[in-house]
Specification:
With about 375 residues, the chain is an alpha/beta fold. The chain is about 35% helix and about 20% strand. The strands form 2 sheets. It has a 9-stranded mixed β-sheet with strand order 5-4-1-8-9-10-11-12-13, with helices on both faces. Helix 2 crosses helix 8 (about 310-320).
Length: about 375
């Protein structure tokens, strides 16, 4: 009953405010002030040679894209409560789309493959992706499906977010995948949605020697087949235990990630995000076989506005760095920075930094790892091994 009441509260909040939010979305967006976030670092500086990043290839993402109706409230409502929002926004959403938009803002050449409806939500999805520098040539529009959307309640007191998702009724098909989608492609990222189409695209990428990363949050139909095609896996804190369910004696982080690597022979490494505890990673060819631990980027707690999309932002930072041949720890560090920036704004995308902002922050914080992670040219078939 409580769950039903919560859903109705969110529907009422979002329905009443959607007209104003859609109007606001069409207005020019303001840039996040650099002074709104405080970073801490003990590293020494490296010179920043250029504020322009050479790009010779593209990053292709396949997966979900949608619209997020985000209602910010001072405290999560109790059953039958009537409350007001403290803020309400409409933004583009979806795991793969969020990561691609973040990569686009970092001056990468980015393409998104997905499917949305021909409705107003679909128009907003492609508009915002284009504004972030994403090539939407392969975002297919269908009259047979509504565009996916999600109601999100952001609880300011508890610093949590609750999502109620309405998916599309039509997915991409394997027949819609074409090797031309991978022309000049240096990296393919999948979020587990449109799974059968993702399997086909991963097969094409495997044949061309293009690294494939996969974001996994929970079990989905055909996911076991898709995981066999991935070179790199990103997971949330819960999925390693789901993957190893029923296997006795496997409970600690290192054992869980090691079992994933041994079960999936193609995987080079797996990275697990753990929220405020940072992230952990394990490489197949690690000499000491120990976890790589990366703390969450330190920010003023009062700067945290919304955690929606933090994992997608982390993945974007990692891919940006990994695709330029940097180490896993360096890449996880950049991922932590991009995720921390995202936390300072409502929605999954507004807070993610541009390349220029990143370089400015790297200089101001005198962080050599951050500076190194952003530099280098993306090339076909290049990634850390």
């Amino acid at each position: 009953m409580a769950s039903t009441c919560r859903q109705w509260v969110l529907v009422i909040i979002c329905t009443c405010s959607v007209g104003l939010a859609l109007k606001a979305l069409l207005q020019p967006r303001t840039k996040l002030a650099l002074t709104s976030i405080r970073f801490q670092s003990r590293n020494s500086p490296l010179p920043i040679k250029s504020r322009r990043l050479p790009v010779s290839a593209s990053i292709v993402g396949l997966g979900s894209c949608g619209v997020d109706f985000i209602a910010q409230v001072s405290e999560y409502p109790k059953p039958d409560d009537k409350i007001r929002t403290t803020d309400f926004k409409v933004f583009g959403g979806g795991n793969a789309a969020n990561s691609m938009c973040a990569l686009g803002k970092l001056a990468n050449n980015v393409k998104l493959i997905s499917k949305v409806g021909t409705d107003a939500n679909g128009d907003l999805i492609v508009k915002e992706a284009e504004e972030s520098g994403v090539d939407i040539s392969y975002v297919l529009r269908s009259k047979l499906t509504p565009s996916p959307f999600t109601y999100v309640i952001v609880d300011q007191k508890g610093q949590t977010r609750t999502c109620i998702h309405t998916p599309a009724t039509e997915e991409l098909t394997p027949q819609e995948m074409d090797v031309k989608m991978l022309e000049d492609c240096a990296w393919v990222h999948l979020d587990g949605r449109h799974t059968e189409a993702a399997i086909r695209l991963a097969e094409l990428a495997n044949e061309k020697g293009i690294p494939v990363s996969l974001d996994v949050e929970k079990d989905r139909p055909h996911l076991d087949q898709l995981m066999q095609k991935a070179d790199i896996m990103f997971t949330n804190s819960k999925y390693p235990a789901i993957f190893c369910k029923g296997q006795e004696g496997i409970t600690d982080d290192e054992s869980l990630l090691l079992r994933m690597l041994t079960t999936l022979p193609r995987l080079k490494f797996v990275v697990c995000t753990k929220g405020a505890d940072g992230s952990i990673g394990l490489m197949r060819d690690s000499k000491d076989g120990k976890l790589i631990r990366c703390p969450a980027w330190s920010i003023d707690p009062s700067s945290v506005v919304d955690t929606t999309g933090a994992g997608d932002a982390f993945i974007a930072g990692c891919i940006h760095s990994l695709s330029r041949g940097h180490s896993l720890l360096t890449s996880m560090t950049l991922g932590s920075y991009v995720a921390a920036r995202k936390l300072t704004a409502l929605g999954a995308r507004a807070g993610t930094p541009s390349l220029e902002q990143l370089l400015i922050d790297a200089g101001e914080t005198k962080d050599d790892i951050l500076t190194r992670a952003v530099q280098g040219e993306l090339k076909v078939g290049s990634y850390v091994s």
